[in-house]
């Protein structure tokens, strides 16, 4: 009975191997090939990322040395297919170089590339949009400034102060004091906005007849404290 049982099991195993051996072997081979391909791709990708990091560091070194043209050439080599964030950083740096060299149109084009790249990190796209508008404000229609910066000129936005200030200026250029004034007041009264920006918007709001001062005594104390700190620093 044992011999018969072993023979039956052997036949069942042989039958299973004949029926499933080839598909299982192919699946295993494909799995191993896919895993090997992934390791190869990942290795190449890591190597490319490391190379791009080195290129960014070298470009930064050139910038610190004042070699703007060499830095720009180094940044142009960075490929966005491997790392959209690295390419966005490169384009933002190239835009800064172009602005320093008086090439506003080129700077705007580099910023536009970052803004249009939906694979780039959103904070970098937002920062590029803000810098694009700031650099090209004089060449833009006020309504275009308002439309493009509207999402960033909201109280819950991290860019509220800077974007809101530009939008307020665009409203003023349109003669729309009823929109510009409250926006300037909101910026001036927002504690999360840098004090220098709050002071600018507070003065501009006051110039146009909008009171942005919540507590006069507190503001005077802050101004006196800033003055004392400046005197100590000198």
3D architecture notes:
The protein contains 10 helices and no strands. The longest helix is centred in the first third of the chain and has 63 residues, at 2-64. It is extended and about 95 Å long. The protein is 78% helix and 0% strand. It has helices spanning 2-64, 68-76, 84-100, 104-116, 122-136, 142-149, 160-173, 177-188, 195-207, 216-233. Helix 7 (160-173) packs antiparallel against helix 8 and helix 8 (177-188) packs antiparallel against helix 9. It is mainly alpha-helical and 234 residues long. It has 2 domains: 54-139, Alpha Horseshoe (Serine Threonine Protein Phosphatase 5, Tetratricopeptide repeat), CATH 1.25.40; 140-234.
Structure summarized in a few sentences:
With 234 residues, the protein is mainly alpha-helical.
Task: Kindly list the characteristics that best describe this protein.
mainly alpha; 78% helix; 2 domains; Serine Threonine Protein Phosphatase 5, Tetratricopeptide repeat
Topology overview:
Elements: H1 2-64, H2 68-76, H3 84-100, H4 104-116, H5 122-136, H6 142-149, H7 160-173, H8 177-188, H9 195-207, H10 216-233
Helix pairs in contact: 1-2, 2-3, 3-4, 3-5, 4-5, 6-7, 7-8, 8-9
């Amino acid at each position: 009975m044992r011999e018969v049982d072993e023979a039956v099991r052997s036949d069942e195993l042989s039958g299973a191997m004949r029926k499933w051996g080839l598909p299982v072997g192919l699946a295993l081979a494909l799995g191993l090939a896919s895993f090997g391909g992934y390791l190869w791709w990942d290795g190449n990708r890591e190597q490319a990322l490391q190379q791009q990091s080195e290129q960014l560091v070298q470009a930064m070194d050139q910038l610190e040395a004042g070699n703007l043209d060499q830095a720009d050439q180094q940044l142009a080599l960075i490929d966005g297919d491997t790392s959209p964030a690295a390419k966005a950083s490169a384009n933002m740096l190239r835009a800064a170089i172009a602005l320093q060299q008086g090439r506003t149109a080129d700077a705007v084009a580099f910023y536009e590339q970052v803004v249009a790249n939906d694979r780039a990190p959103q904070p970098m796209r937002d920062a590029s949009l803000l810098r694009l508008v700031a650099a090209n404000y004089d060449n833009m229609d006020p309504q275009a400034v308002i439309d493009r910066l509207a999402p960033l000129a909201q109280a819950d936005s991290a860019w509220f102060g800077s974007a809101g200030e530009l939008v307020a200026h665009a409203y003023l250029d349109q003669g729309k004091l009823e929109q510009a004034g409250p926006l300037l007041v909101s910026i001036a009264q927002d504690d999360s906005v840098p004090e220098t920006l709050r002071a600018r918007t507070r003065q501009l709001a006051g110039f146009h007849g909008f009171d942005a001062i919540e507590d006069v005594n507190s503001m005077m104390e802050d101004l006196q404290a800033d003055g004392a700190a400046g005197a100590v620093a000198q």
